[in-house]
Specification:
single chain; alpha/beta; Rossmann fold; 5 strands; 52% helix
Length: 176
């Protein structure tokens, strides 16, 4: 079964949804950006390195996570992932179309990408999420455009309880 992407702006509930899917027995893979930020803060560095270095490190980690999950039976749900990391890299260092297409072939995911829309009622900041809600809205728009550009179909996950969101994903995947 292929990897399934769950995306959206920061604070839209991706991590919480992945925890719910994991509690149902599904394999999940966490976001790399938060880990990079947390590690940097732990050693007294600024939260993020310069954009190129940040994007390259996230891509490196996401490639490794993708490769480690290749032998997992059943759906594997990713909080963001390689395709989104490619978008970050492309923002700071645009790729030729042939190069992008080679990456997309090498790290293919399910053609349906689940997008959690910005949700002000659940948005909070924390040590790793230090941007305001407007940033979340901007990231949401950017990632949606990127996935469409890369040929994926978006499925907006309704603002429901976590359990209902998980059931929405599972029903939609079963019907696909």
């Amino acid at each position: 079964m292929p990897s399934v992407i769950i995306t959206g702006g920061p604070g839209a509930g991706k991590t919480t949804l992945l925890r719910e899917l994991a509690s149902l027995g599904y394999a999940t893979v966490g976001e790399s950006a938060r880990a990079v930020i947390s590690e940097r803060l732990a050693v007294g560095l600024s939260p993020r390195p310069e954009p190129r270095e940040f994007a390259q490190e996230i891509l490196r980690r996401d490639v490794r996570k993708y490769e480690r999950s290749a032998d997992v039976a059943g759906w594997v749900f990713f909080d963001r992932g390689v395709i989104e990391a490619l978008g970050m890299v492309n923002e700071v260092e645009p790729m030729a179309e042939a190069e992008l297409n080679a990456w997309l072939r090498a790290y293919a995911v399910h053609p349906l990408v689940f997008v959690l829309p910005p949700w002000p009622e659940i948005y909070t900041t924390d040590t790793e999420r230090d941007h305001d809600f407007a940033h979340s809205v901007a990231v949401h728009g950017s990632v949606c455009k990127w996935y469409v550009k890369c040929g994926y179909t978006l499925n907006e996950v309704p603002r429901l309880s976590v359990a209902e969101r998980a059931q929405h994903l599972l029903r939609t995947l079963s019907a696909a």
